[in-house]
Write a structure and sequence with these properties.
This protein has about 250 residues and is α+β, with helices and mostly antiparallel strands. It has 3 helices and 12 strands. The strands form 3 sheets. A 6-stranded antiparallel barrel has the order 1-2-11-10-7-12. The chain has a 4-stranded antiparallel sheet with strand order 5-4-3-6, with helices on one face.
């Protein structure tokens, strides 16, 4: 599926096709310029910057400016060096996944980083409110297990959100309106990859009205049963009369 590089904008709200007000993230997806082709992957650039390093002179000559972001993505279809990838490849209702770098929060404790509850606030616990508590299990094993959740660097990692939906496309401004939140800070770099179509709500089929013929058949059956009952009654009465005569 095609991918495109973009920068994250503000969050807003928009109405979907069912008239529901949903949060959206505005992504600025300016045309991506194909800088190089490597087997089944292509190198694309986004944005511009002033400083150019000598090994990147080729990219500057192809794009006209030095791209701010350069990323290798999967090749989809036939492309040439210098071609531009735009938002026109997306359609309303497309399912996408967005990859970005989360906001950095520096060195954080266990409560902020993992949601620990902290220690008791009474019975003389004056300095244990935000402490992590015990981190080991005694003499055996006599060490702290790898991956123990403790204080440390929080955020500033690559994160991917899947199952997002394209609610609107503005080709004049090269903007995509994506339903929900996207990782990263404002003006941060993200990669948008199309994964398919969002499954829509399908109403259950309406119950078919009963046909008049079925109703008539039921009436006829009822009448036949009633006549059969009457005939049986008449036969029984006649048998009784004959028995009395004898």
């Amino acid at each position: 599926m095609p991918s495109i590089l973009a920068t994250k904008g503000n969050m807003a709200s928009r109405y979907n096709t069912r008239g529901q007000r949903v949060p959206v993230t505005i992504l600025q997806a300016d045309p991506n310029i194909v800088l190089a082709i490597k087997d089944q992957k292509i190198l694309v650039g986004l944005g511009s910057k002033k400083k150019i390093k000598k090994p990147q002179n080729h990219f500057a000559t192809v794009a006209g400016v030095m791209p701010r972001f350069i990323k290798e993505i999967k090749k989809d279809g036939e492309v040439k060096i210098g071609d531009k990838i735009t938002v026109s490849q997306f359609q309303l209702g497309d399912a996408v996944r967005v990859t970005g770098t989360t906001k950095g929060h520096g060195f954080a404790g266990g409560i902020k980083r993992y949601g620990f509850h902290g220690g008791p606030k009474t019975h003389g616990q004056s300095d244990r409110h935000r402490a992590p508590g015990s981190i080991g299990s005694g003499t055996t094993p006599g060490r702290v297990y790898k991956g123990k959740r403790m204080a440390g660097h929080y955020g500033n990692v690559q994160f991917t959100v899947t199952g997002l939906e394209v609610l609107a496309i503005d080709p004049t401004t090269n903007q995509l309106y994506i339903k929900g939140a996207v990782p990263g800070a404002k003006n941060g770099f993200v990669i948008i990859e199309k994964t398919g179509k969002v499954k829509r709500y399908v109403a259950p089929p309406e119950e078919k009205p009963k046909e008049d013929e079925e109703g008539e058949e039921k009436k006829e059956n009822k009448e036949e049963k009633a006549t059969e009952k009457e005939d049986k009654k008449d036969e029984k009465q006649q048998d009784k009369k004959e028995d009395k005569k004898e």
